[in-house]
Write a structure and sequence with these properties.
Radius of gyration of chain A: 13 Å
Largest interface: A-B, 24 and 24 residues
Structural class of chain A: mainly beta
Distance between the termini of chain A: 36 Å
Distance between the termini of chain B: 37 Å
Largest sheet of chain B: 6 strands, mixed
Number of strands of chain A: 11
Structural class of chain B: mainly beta
Order of helices and strands of chain A: EEEEEEEEEEE
Radius of gyration of chain B: 13 Å
Helix content of chain A: under 10%
Shape of chain B: globular
Oligomer: heterodimer
Strand content of chain A: over 45%
């Protein structure tokens, strides 16, 4: 029972490089989220999706893009990485926004040099 | 800006002492969830509160949702070393149903 799987777990990038973080869930959840976690800031929502083919901006969307082509996958892209994007990125999914808890992946530690 | 706040930011307790963290919102919440994140781990759902004044218990943990649905608390009785971690509250605003806002968390250290 995998739950939410994030790939990769660690990555080091140079400023200006691009990359894609992959999130896959096997719980048939409609809602998926991307967060970043920085010391003292808690979890901040980057983008989210309420279903296949939909995406919406969260609290800190600048510099990121997302796609949800399949219900089970939610991709987070960095087009031109900046040192300010050094963070731990968590993907989560839930059955619905209101009534169900979010299930988190193990996170991706991303460093931008 | 941050609409859900938590205090304290850090708490160090001796094993066996009680611990409380408080979550406060500037606006009314439709519900609140609590999560625990162990060091190096990911957030794990603990509980959800929906009703005004609701109180729920899980063994040594007691969760409360305020009457005005703007604040919540988590109380741990007789802490153990397994309680170490960061506790986050997460609220859905009544005025913004499409996302959940996390508080900054309270980091708990338990001294054996």
């Amino acid at each position: 029972n995998a739950g939410v799987t994030q790939t990769p777990k660690f990555r080091v990038l140079k400023t200006g490089q691009s990359m894609t973080l992959l999130c896959a869930q096997d719980m048939n959840h409609e809602y998926m989220y991307w967060y970043r976690q920085d010391p003292g800031m808690g979890l901040r929502l980057i983008h989210y999706s309420v279903g296949e083919g939909t995406t919406a901006k969260g609290e800190v969307p600048d510099g990121y893009n997302v796609s949800r082509l399949k219900k089970q996958n939610f991709l987070l892209g960095l087009e031109s990485a900046a040192p300010s994007q050094t963070s731990v990125y968590f993907c989560a999914s839930s059955y619905s926004i209101f009534t169900q808890p979010q299930h988190f992946g193990d996170g991706t530690r991303l460093s931008i040099l | 800006g941050q609409q859900v706040m938590q205090i304290p930011q850090y708490q160090h307790v001796q094993e066996g002492e009680d611990f409380t963290t408080y979550c406060n919102s500037s606006t009314t919440l439709s519900n609140i969830q609590w999560y625990k994140q162990r060091p190096g781990g990911h957030p794990v759902f603990l509980i959800q509160l929906v009703k005004s004044g609701e109180v729920k218990k899980q063994k040594r943990l007691t969760f409360q949702f305020g009457e005005a649905k703007k604040n919540s608390s988590l109380h741990i009785t007789a802490t153990q070393t397994t309680d170490v971690g960061t506790y986050f509250c997460a609220g859905t605003l009544e005025t913004s149903y499409d996302k959940v806002i996390f508080g900054p968390g309270t980091s708990l250290s338990v001294i054996p």
